[in-house]
Amino acid sequence: MAGNILEVRNLTKSFGGLKAVNDLTFDVKEGELLGIAGPNGSGKSTLFNVMTKIPFGPTGGEVVFGNQRIDRMPPHRIAALGLARTFQKDAEFPDLSARETVALAAVYGRKLSRAGAMAATEEQLHAVQFDPARADMPTTELSVFDRKQLMIASALVMQPRVLMLDEPASGLTRPEITALDALLCKIAASGVTIMLIEHVLSLLLSVAQRLIVLNQGSLLAEGDPQTVIKNPAVVEAYLGGRAA
Amino acid sequence: MTRASLLFGGLLVLAVIPLFVQDSYTRHLFILAFIYAVIASNWDLSLGYAGLFNFGHLVFFATGVYTVAIAAKTLGISPWLAIPMSGVTAAIAGLIVSAPVARLKGIYVVLVTFAFGQLVLQLILSQSHLTGGAEGMVRIPYLQIGDYKFISDFKLGYYYVALGLLIVSTLYLLWVTNSTFGKSLLAVRDNEDYARARGIWITRQRVLVLTLSAIFPGVAGGFFAAYLRVASPEVLSFGTLSLALSMVLIGGAGTIIGPIIAAFLLIFATEAMAGIRGMEDARFLIVAIGMILVLRFAPGGLAQLVRAPRKKP
Ligand SMILES: Nc1ncnc2c1ncn2[C@@H]1O[C@H](COP(=O)(O)OP(=O)(O)OP(=O)(O)O)[C@@H](O)[C@H]1O
Ligand SMILES: [Mg+2]
User: Fold this and answer.
1) Contact at CB, A109 and B184, closer than 8 angstroms
2) Which residue range(s) make up the domain with A6?
3) B291 part of a folded domain
4) Ligand 2 is a single-atom ion; what residues have CB below 5 A from it?
5) Final residue of a structural domain among A159, A187, A211
6) Which of A95, A99, A137, A152 is best to mutate for the B interface (most B CBs within 10 A)?
7) Bridge partners, residue A221, by sequence
8) Which domain covers residue B197, as residue numbers?
9) A10: number of CA atoms within 13 Å, CB side?
10) What are the tens digits of pLDDT across the range B40-89?
């Protein structure tokens, strides 16, 4: 197996007394698809937030990407270095079309010229199978699935080394989840490392090569997805979380 | 397409107006409208596109006014050179105000930029050896080429210079707003986090937009000084500020063309009202009420009413 692309060391994020991410340490291996699970409020999104510094950084710990520490860098630099994230809540630029959104990421996140960005945009929209007929519509008029595709396309056009997806399947229908599954496999096959937060377990277990489970901001379990998911502590955390 | 044809149609009309409108008072109103249109449409760049409420926008205009006043009168530089210089000094003012503002949000931007405006006003008042203080400066050199004075032929020369300024400023604004940079302003305005996640350095974009929105108001200020031949702290008065702001909001923030059209409407409307006995003081109140009505019933401004939906589904 290749080396680590990301090393997360004792990462912590406190909100007052609440430690949303609590002394978290784990690695992400180059080229893997790492699943991240955990009950609601276990700190998954906060982990992405502090790793990308969007909108806030950690209160403690380090993140090493490649061979540089990124936890003191401004967010736009982290993005341009190759850590591209999506958002759990649909993010969009309401006054831009899909084309404009992706082109913007190509210009600012990948430093392409306008012409280069146009070409990269067409290529990327095609790669995520975005309906070309909808590429010039205002993003506010797109369907949920269009928006998910668009958010992934705008991340991928930056040619990131790590793609961080926060619940891409939420709100999708079964057939759409199947399409997403295929897309994720295709992206992974292209060599991009993926960190995937997902509540839809069938999708997570289908694509993840390794799984980490968070609970109350801490690492509860780590390893082979099929094994981890049957871990009694994990089962307990999920059931406990649901009962609460 | 319709926007472009509207633009060129309007331009053509404005270009031939002096053939029909020969009195210097009406031409004066047009010149004022051109100047206000430049101020308001450039304000729209920071306010409408970047969502930054720069209450110190008139400082850029004032910087231009005093640049030409001092350069042309005190230092004896030709106004033809001093007017473009005022674009540079105004851009520097934009850079200066962007330093504290670039990392602030919402109401804090308003507070700091308002304070900046007050600071500059105090500076103008206190440095009277340079600026003439509260009295201002008079008899600023006017525009002329050879022996031809631009004030002659009922202000014909000034009319076309002001119109030219508005045209260049508008082309510049359309270029900026249609560029990727312009799109990035909308992105930052509407979703900072998403914009950051796509590599946009928000602080830098804000510094840029404040600087870029300063240039043409500065040039307009410089022109204004050479036209009226006075520089007075009045340019930073609340009346000037609120009139320009109502042009942006009534015309429609984020449209560029809207504030330009509103500048014409408001200049002529307020002048018309000034001619009615008893209305002299009430007219700004009426403009304010108009602004509230527009914001209530057409929050996107007048431009929203005439503009077709942005893109076909
Ligand atoms: N900005 C914030 N301020 C205060 N508390 C926060 C903030 N963001 C998250 N939290 C808290 O941190 C904890 C972790 O939240 P987070 O959103 O990371 O969970 P999650 O695992 O992503 O949950 P979900 O599965 O529902 O998306 C929660 O208790 C949440 O209330
Ligand atoms: Mg979450």
Assistant:
1) no
2) 1-82+161-244
3) no
4) A 44-45, 88
5) A159
6) A95
7) A213
8) 23-234
9) 4
10) 999 999 999 999 999 999 999 999 999 999 999 999 999 999 999 999 99
